[in-house]
Amino acid sequence: MPARAEPMTSRESCPTLAVANHPTPAARPHHGERERPPPDRSHCVAIWQRYVAIRGILLSGKPGHLAGSGHSGVMVLIAELTAVRHGQSLSNVVFPAAQAAGRLETGITSRDADVPLTALGRAQAAALGRALAAEPPAIRPPDVVLCSPYLRARRTYEIAADAAERDGVLLPTPRFDDRLVDRLLGDWEMTTGLAIEARFPAQAAQWRAEGTWLYRPPGGGENFPDVAARLSSLLADLHANHPHRRVLIVAHDAVVVVLRQIIEGLSFDDLDRISAAGGIRNAGITRFTRHDGRLTLAEFNTVTHLSSARADHQH
Question: Which of 104, 223, 241, 246 could anchor a disulfide with 195, C-beta 3.0 to 4.6 Å?
Answer without folding.
Answer: 104
